[in-house]
Sequence to fold (480 residues):
Amino acid sequence: MKNRITHILKTKYIEYIILSILILIGFAARLYKITNPIADWHSFRQADTASVSRIYIVDGINLFIPKYHDISRVQSGLFNPHGYRFVEFPIYNALHAFVAKNFTFLSFEVWGRLTSVFYTLTTSFVIFLIGRKLYGKWLGVISSACYLLLPYNIYFTRVILPEPLAILFAVTALWFFLLYQDDQKYKYLLLSSILLSLGILVKPYVVFFGLPLAYYFFNKYGLKRSLINKHVLISIIIVVLPFMLWRVWEQKFPEGIPFWTWTFNGDGIRFKPAFWKWIFGDRLGFLILGVWGVIPFTFGILSLRKKDNFLISLLLGMFLYVSIIATANVRHDYYQTLLIPVVSLVLAKGLLEMWKLDYGNNIVRKLSILFFVFLSMITSAFQIREFYKINHPEIIEAGNAVDRLTPKDAIVIANYNGDTAFLYQTKRRGWPVVELPINELIDEGAQYYVSVNYDEQTKKFMEQFQIVVKTDKYVILKLI
Fold:
């Protein structure tokens, strides 16, 4: 039996055969509840992203003036009558809109999820290439398997968010930089810089993936020589300039720029006990690694040596990311998606180190490793399964009613405590909360009010305004 397995593993291109199977499994896993409406975990952030794509389908793609349905003051503190949405550069939204508009045999939301899945499957292949180049084909295969099959990553790479595309740009940039390190061909550095720049435009936090590049040039040339090296300077300009131009441009639309300084340390949590508990205990240890995965992950870290400077610098970059963007990482678990490529490489390294240990009974040790992996997957999946649930289906029903009963250009108040997931379901521009006295909102253009909560405010409005429809789940009022 052992000889047969050894013979199979020595088959030519066996790593590609296994990788293909893993990618198919990863794809199948992400089809679970792929038709879910945008009302599952982190639906508010998905709704904002999908909203930009939906408006692109209706009004055409304009990369430089992205808009969404929310015209309230919630995000920026300023009235936003045009619905400007200046967060990430909308490459993800443009691609989503293009596919959904031209291939209508699937729904808009399904296409959004599938584009994220496609970026993720491609990323898994690039992670395989990186792992293989650094440590051999089997680490490449295992790191790709980790990226594809960690339950946390299965969920967060089939959502309508820009992170999967940003991560694809980031890891592909790293791959081309590794090629540049090998043969010093400038074209690889150029490609790496362009891809890193695109990643930063899509998600600015991708800049932390640039630490291996910075370390390499600093180690090779020193700081002063790096800053006068023509190739290094051009690379820096390519990486930084597009993002800076985007930031300068968006200042023309202050009402469309959400509050962002809070993400760093808005609540002062950085390096406090709660920071370590949330990031390394609850998120990395429990949610991502499922407790038992901490064992091989620790082995992976302890196995690192000076020659592993590429992976060490990546780990340092990820630590800087969660430390600098501290408040956002503590408050929102989807922020840790950027960690997963590096976690996958370290986890794979640890698993291989444990597998090769010459200690104790060989069979017992290897069975224990497989059992650790099983327990890790089960523990993580048990938590992640809750993310797929639609806890408030009434917002979908009410949103469909608004879409059916009101004009397409109607401006609505979808009162949901500032959460835009409800407003998104209406397919209308408007407010996700009653942020001003109702008469002032009417003066600013509000025409309909919809609520899934019969609170005192809604009951008062029902006495003041015409009821379009009322059910036990929602009410729609005409305000003018």
